[in-house]
Amino acid sequence: MKSFYNITIGLLIVTGVVTYFWHPFAWSLVLTVPIILVGLMDIIQPKQTIRRNFPVIGRMRYWAEWMRPKVYQYFIESDTDGTPFNRLSRNVIYQRAKKVVDTTPFGTQLNVYEVGYEWLNHSIAPLDGHKVEQHPRVMVGGPDCKQPYSASILNISAMSFGSLSKNAIMALNGGAKLGSFAHNTGEGGLSPYHLEPGGDIIWQIGTGYFGCRNKADGTFNYEAFAERAKTPQVKMIEIKLSQGAKPGHGGILPAAKVTQEIANIRLVEVGKDVNSPPFHTAFKTPIEMMQFIGKLRELSGGKPIGFKLCVGRKSQFLAICKAMVKTGISPDFITVDGGEGGTGAAPLEFSNYVGMPLRDALAFVHDALNGFALRRHIRIIASGKVSTGFEIVKNLSLGADMCNCARAMMLALGCIQALECNTNKCPTGVATQDKNLMKGLDVDDKKVRVKNFHNETVKSAAELMAAAGLDDPRRLHRSFIYRRISASQIQTYAEMYPNMLRGALLEAPFPAGWELDMMHSHEETFDPSITYA
Fold first, then answer.
1. CA 324, 330, 333, 339: dihedral to nearest 10 degrees?
2. Is beta strand 154-156 parallel, antiparallel or unpaired with respect to 402-405?
3. What pLDDT does 66 receive?
4. Are 360 and 244 a contacting pair, CB within 8 Å?
């Protein structure tokens, strides 16, 4: 601060002396005076110590912080370093979206002896990858479902209008229409931008019940649900219990963001804060949840009804399974969202330290359903950082029937992983409501890229399965994937996650490691059925 005063006084004296002898030099004040004023503003403001102690020059720190992620991404990180998606992953997404060469030269860049490295067991007698089914489908719908849906093994995960721009939503749904796969609306409701392109829709219903709520108190509105659920484009309906990026965390849409358009889509009041509680008010117990699922299936005309969750307490999911057995009502599908899943904005602690990762959660859910003899009619959808054919194959081998991906689809749209999703300043017009930014996203061009990425990724998964000698995804199992657990030890998923025998959880004695969670679970409550003094 003292140096600033000395420099300012010295600069003004020099300017005055030079101007006395050469008058045009006075024009230099056009540059120096604004800089001096900025420095005085830095000294006066009380919030930032660096700016007060080092006027003007201290501002470079904040500029450097803003530039750091960009410099790191383009000039410092290696092809395998970047997070959440490294350069290798981003490149293959871009290449497949643009339908250009997606091969890699000179061999793998991965350290195959690093703990955590995984690979597929190929066959000595592989199949011709060009002759197997390139776009396998999965039928979703149990015995009580009157309108089963034939789904792709890869679909667009939940992303709401409001979180994404209307152009991004229309490009995603347009891609789904071109590629014959489904697009999840996210909990923000069913918007005109989801419907306009004509792609298949998975309508997600979160705790805010947007699009099917009573405006006055935010409770579930069955009439509004029935009206929208019968929309022909809506193929499946998903009840969101929690998501991997911020499980157990609610939210508030500030009044300033509740425009007339948002209010109409979400059935809320204009200009008022809108709460999304961390829990559902339409049901309180596992049995009530199953009854709610049965009611929605009836009101929708028999469409597939499922739920999405990030696994937390194992006993709570087991309580849901017990409720399925007791009521005879079960969902048509369950979406398992891993703790590594993405979001536009979440508290750091929730993103980093809450929620079970996908691989562990997926194996648990599959085994639990099999243990209660429920797996046959319930499809499992894996969601969480899926971007390549190998990740699809890994998830299918663990027990999934199909996969959802969100961030990979955003990258196919043109996202550059600028990490600006929570600022409304997404430079590619994907995660923003700024009209000047979103108009740069051309819907007609990007919907083709979304379709291309989907088709090429599913094709790569089919080719991997052919290399393993498989012509049907249902033939994948845990013995097909190896994982390095130390420098000299490897295990298959089957060794890491031993398969559960069908019906093994219907009566005691229960398999080792399941006893405590089974003891704590009850279909009448989500709370532990046994408490400790």
1. -30
2. parallel
3. 83
4. no
Q: Which of 359, 354, 370 is nearest to 318 (CA)?
A: 370
Query: Tell me, what DSSP letter sits at residue 273?
Result: -
**Nearest Cα to 88, choosing from 387, 358, 344, 385?**
387
496 three-class SS: helix
Query: 518 pLDDT exceeds 80?
Result: yes
Q: b/e map of 405-431 (b: 16 or more CB within 10 Å)? A: bbbbbbbbbbbbbbebbeeeebebbbb
Kindly report the CA angle at 72 between 66 and 77, in degrees rounded to 5? 160
What is the DSSP code (8-state) at residue 271? T
Do the beta carbons of residue 405 and residue 360 sit within 8 Å? no
In this predicted structure, the answer to whether residue 531 has a pLDDT above a threshold of 70 is no
**What is d(CA 44, CA 417) in angstroms, rounded to the nearest whole number?**
37
Q: How far apart are CA 205 and CA 330, in angstroms?
A: 17
Which of 136, 110, 170, 83 shows the shortest CA–CA distance to 407?
A: 83
Distance from C-alpha of 56 to C-alpha of 48, rounded to nearest angstrom: 12
Give the CA distances from residue 388 to residues 361, 384, 467, in Å, rounded to whole numbers and listed in that order: 20, 12, 16
Q: How far apart are CA 169 and CA 450, in angstroms?
A: 11
Cβ count near 271 (within 10 Å): 12
Q: Which of 92, 170, 347 is nearest to 245 (CA)?
A: 347
Mean pLDDT of the chain: 91
d(CA 299, CA 267): 19
Q: Which residue, among 212, 219, 177, has the nearest Cα to 197 in the 3D structure?
A: 177
CA distance 191 to 406: 18
Question: Scanning the structure block, which residue is given the tokens 């990762």?
Answer: 357
d(CA 137, CA 432): 33
Q: Which two tokens stand for residue 210?
A: 């947007």
Beta strand residue intervals within 268-321, DSSP E: 274-276, 305-309
Closest CA to 205 of 233, 241, 166: 241
Q: Which two tokens stand for residue 304?
A: 């597939």
Buried b (16+ CB within 10 A) or exposed e, 393-404: bbbbbbbbbbbb
Q: Is the pLDDT of residue 533 over 60?
A: no
Residue 181: the pLDDT is 97
> Within 10 Å of residue 150's Cβ, how many Cβ atoms?
12
Question: 87-98 and 443-467 are packed helices; what angle lies between their axes, rounded to 10 degrees?
Answer: 110
Which conformational region is residue 169 in: left (phi greater than 0), alpha (psi within -120 to 50 degrees), or beta?
A: alpha
Token duo for residue 149: 């849906």
DSSP 126-172: ---TTTS-SS-EEEE--TT-SS-EEEESEEEPP--BTTB-HHHHHHH
Residue type for position 331: P
> Cβ distance 473 to 396 under 8 Å?
yes
- The residues facing 382 across adjacent strands are 336, 403
